Amino acid sequence: MTQLRVFLVDDHAMIRSGVRAELAADPEATLAVVGEAGTVEDAVRGILETTPDVVLLDVHMPDGGGRAVLDQVRGKAPGVRFLALSVSDAAEDVIGVIRGGARGYVTKTISGADLRDAVGRVAAGDAIFSPRLAGFVLDAFAIGPSAVPEDVAEKALDVLSAREREVMRLLARGYTYREIGQQLFISIKTVETHASNVLRKLQVSNRNELTRWAADRRIV
Amino acid sequence: MALAFVGVGVFAYALLWVFLPHSDSVRMDSPTGDGSGSRSAVSRLSLDALRDKPSLAILLIGIGGAALLTQIGPFGEIPVLWPLIIVGIGLALIWRQVDDRNLLSRRNLRWRLAVGALVAVVGLVAVLTTLNLLEVTWQSFVSTLLILGVVGIATAPWWRRLVAERSSERRARIRVEERAEVAAHLHDSVLQTLALIQRHAESPRDVNRLARGQERELRSWLYGRPGEDTATFGGALERAVADIEASYDVRVQSVIVGDAPVQDGLSAVLQATHEAMRNAARHAGVHDVSLYAEVEDNAVTVFVRDRGVGFDPDHIADDRRGVRQSIVERMTRHGGSARITSSPGSGTEVELQLQRESS
Question: Do A135 and B255 touch (CB under 8 A)?
Fold first, then answer.
C-alpha cells in the first residue's frame, strides 16, 4: 500500500513536532510527512512544490491564517486536500476554513489514532465532521425543511434533507460513521455520501440563514 | 418709561429662566406670603410658563430688550425695534433646538438650526442697516477675518501637530489600558493555573483537570462564548459541563444547537442532564463523554453518551438510584421523557426529551 503524503502547516514548532510524532506512531506506517511550514508564505510554496495528498492546516497563523493558504493554493494544486486543525472551535474559524475549501475540521485535542484516521479519510475524499462542526451545521441550517420532498432537499443547496439532518445529529452526538450506519440501517458509504453532501452545501450555500447566522458570529 | 420698566422685568424673568436649574424647586423660591403680592404671583406664573416654552421666553427677551432699547440713547430715535425682533426670533429658533435636542432627530435639528441662524443673521444685518453701521461692521469683519486667516495659516503646523499628538496619545493610552487588562486577566487565571500545574506535576489527573478548566475559562474569555450566561439553557449547560469537568477526570465534548431562556421544565432537563453526565463521569470508566443538546421551537432533546462499561438498565444497583430518581422520574414529573440505552460493555446513552409550549 502506498503511503499518504502529508504536509503540516502550523506556526508553532512544538505542535508540528507533536503532530509529526502522532502521525509516525502508526503501526502500519501509512502516513509520511513530506514537509512542514510555519508561515503562510512557506506553506504555499511547500504545498505547490511537494503536492501532498493531505495538508494539515492550522487555522490561526500570522498573515491571514489557514484561510490565506487555502485562498492562495486554490486552483493551483487540485489534487491536494485540506484538513483544518486548530485549538479554536469558534464558529467563525470553523465555517471560514470550510468555506475556504477544507474537507474537514478537527481540534488539536484529537487523539493520535483519530487524527490518522481523519487524514486517511480526507485523502479518500470524505468529509470530516467533528461533533462541534456537525452542531454548527445544524445551527446554521436550523429551519426544518419539512415541506421540501426528500429527493429535492438532497439536491437543493440551502436545505438539509431529513436524512442529512439525521446524520448530522448523530455526528453531533459523538457517533462514528460506522455507528451511524448501524443506527440508520445504511452502509458506511451512504453515511459518507451524506456527510460529503452536507460539506458541499456548507461550502457553496448562499442560504440566508447561513449568512445571517455567520454574521451573528462575526463571520464575513 | 413704564414700557422700559416692563421691559426690564421681562428681561429679568428671562434671565432667571435661563440660569435657574430645570426643576420644580423654583416654585418654592417665591413664597406666597411675600409682600410683593401680585407681582410675585405673576412672576411665578410666567416663570412656569417660560420653563415650558423656552422659545416664547426668547421672544419675550427680544421684545423686552427691543422695547428697552427704544427708550434709551440714540436707539430711541431710530426704528430699530422690528429688526431686533427678527434677531430675537432667530435666536429663539436656535435655542429651542438646543433645548429640545432629545426630542428631535439630528437631521431635523440641523435644518432648524440653519434656519434660525439665517433669520438671526438677516435680523442683525437689518439692525446694522437701520443704524447705518453696516459698512463699518463689514469692513471690520473682513479685516478680522483676514487677520484670523493669516494667524491661522501661520500657526497651522503647530495645530496639526497638537491634534496628531492628542490622537496618538489617546491611542497609546487605550493600548496601555488594554494591555493592563489582558495582563491582569492572564495573571489571575493562566499564571495561577500554570503554577498549580507545576505543583501537581506528579499527578496527571490534577494536571488534566487544571488544564481543562483553564482552557475552558480562557476560551470563554477570548471568544465570549455564551458560557457565562446561565439565564439561557445553553449557558447553563456549559456551566454544568464546566462543573463536571472540574469535579471528575473527564472531558465533555458538548455540542449545543439552538438556545432558549431557562424555564420550569428546562431547569428539570438541566438537572437531569447534570445527573446523567455525573453518572457517566463516575461509573463509565472512560475519560470522554459526549453531550448533545438541541433546542427546537417545540421540543428540547438532550443526549449524554459515553463509550464506557455500560450496565443493564433493568438491574440498577441500589446505590445507583440516581438514574431512576434524578433522571427518569424528574423528567416524567415535568411532562418529559427519559430513555436510557445501555448494555454491559457497550457504553450508555441517556436521551432526555421535553416538549415545549411554543411561545
Answer: yes
- ipTM > 0.90? no
Give how far B256 is from chain A: nearest CA, Å: 7
* C-alpha cell of residue A14: 512544538
Q: Which residues in chain A have Cβ-Cβ distances shorter than 8 Å to B280?
A: none
Radius of gyration, CA atoms only, chain B: 39
Report d(CA B296, CA A149) in Å as an integer: 21
Would you say how long chain B is, in residues?
Answer: 359
Alpha helices in chain B (DSSP H): 2-19, 37-52, 54-71, 81-99, 106-130, 134-154, 156-186, 192-199, 204-223, 233-247, 264-283, 321-322, 330-333
For the record, the C-alpha cell of B35 comes out as 409682600
Instruction: Using an 8 Å CB-CB cutoff, list chain B residues near A109.
Output: 251
Locate the chain A residue with the closest alpha carbon to B298.
A144
Non-local CB neighbours of B265 within 8 Å, separated by 6+ positions? B300, B334, B335, B336, B354, B356
- The rounded Cα B330 to chain-centroid distance in angstroms is 40
For B255, the closest of A90, A131, A144 (CB atoms) is A131
C-alpha cell at A13: 514548532
Chain B residue with CA closest to A93: the answer is B223
Amino acid occupying residue B36 = S
Closest to A200 in 3D by CA, of A98, A64, A132: A98
Q: Please report the sign of the dihedral spanned by the C-alpha atoms of residue A176, residue A178, residue A179, residue A184.
A: positive
Q: Please state, in angstroms and rounded to a whole number, the distance separating the CA atoms of residues B265 and B353.
A: 10
Tens place of pLDDT for every residue, chain B, 359 residues?
A: 455 555 566 666 666 665 555 544 444 444 444 444 444 444 555 555 555 555 566 666 666 666 666 666 555 555 677 777 788 888 887 777 666 555 555 667 778 888 888 988 888 888 888 877 888 888 898 999 999 999 999 999 999 999 999 999 999 999 998 888 888 878 778 888 888 888 888 888 888 888 888 887 887 777 665 445 677 888 888 888 888 888 888 888 888 888 888 877 788 888 889 888 988 888 888 888 999 998 888 889 999 998 888 887 777 666 666 677 778 888 888 888 888 888 887 888 899 999 887 54
